């Protein structure tokens, strides 16, 4: 399966890479930042953002049925706008 276009937007902080048995990239999807949650709170209207850490359990992502991945990588966007593989 060829990637027609990456599914990673400029606003995505994290993405998942799906690799075949030869560790070649076959699919990529952006997941924004699932580790942070935003909220609005009375008294903080002047704040641009109000975020806090979220402990994740059982995170789910929808992937096309045709993607037959052998490996999955979590990647993160750097300050230089590069996606680097995270050590888990």
List the helices and strands and how they pair.
Elements (H helix, E strand, L loop, with lengths): L13 E6 L5 E8 L3 E3 L12 E3 L17 E7 L5 E3 L3
Antiparallel strand pairs: 1-2, 1-5, 3-4, 5-6
Note down, in words, how this protein is organized.
The chain is built from no helices and six strands. The mean pLDDT is 81. The strands form two sheets. It has a four-stranded antiparallel beta sheet with strand order 2-1-5-6, with no helix packed on it. The radius of gyration is 16 Å and the shape is elongated. The chain has one domain. The protein has 88 residues and is an all-beta fold. It has strands spanning 14-19, 25-32, 36-38, 51-53, 71-77, 83-85. The protein starts with 13 loop residues before the first strand and ends with a strand.
If strands are numbered along the chain, what order do they take across the biggest sheet? 2-1-5-6
Mean pLDDT: 81
Q: Secondary-structure element order, as H and E?
A: EEEEEE
Report how far apart the termini are.
26 Å
Structural class: mainly beta
Q: Work out the number of β strands.
A: 6
Strand content: 25-35%
Low-confidence stretches: none
Task: Fill in the keyword field for this structure.
mainly beta; two-stranded antiparallel ribbon; 6 strands; elongated
In short:
The protein is an all-beta fold and 88 residues long. It is built from no helices and six strands.
């Amino acid at each position: 399966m060829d990637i027609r276009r990456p599914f990673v937007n400029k606003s995505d902080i994290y993405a998942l890479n799906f690799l075949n048995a030869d560790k070649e990239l076959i699919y990529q999807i952006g997941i924004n930042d699932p580790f942070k949650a935003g909220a609005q709170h009375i008294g903080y209207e002047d704040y641009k953002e109000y975020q806090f850490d979220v402990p994740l359990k059982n995170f789910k992502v929808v992937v096309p049925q045709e993607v037959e991945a052998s490996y999955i990588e979590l990647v993160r966007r750097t300050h230089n706008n590069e996606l680097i593989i995270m050590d888990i």
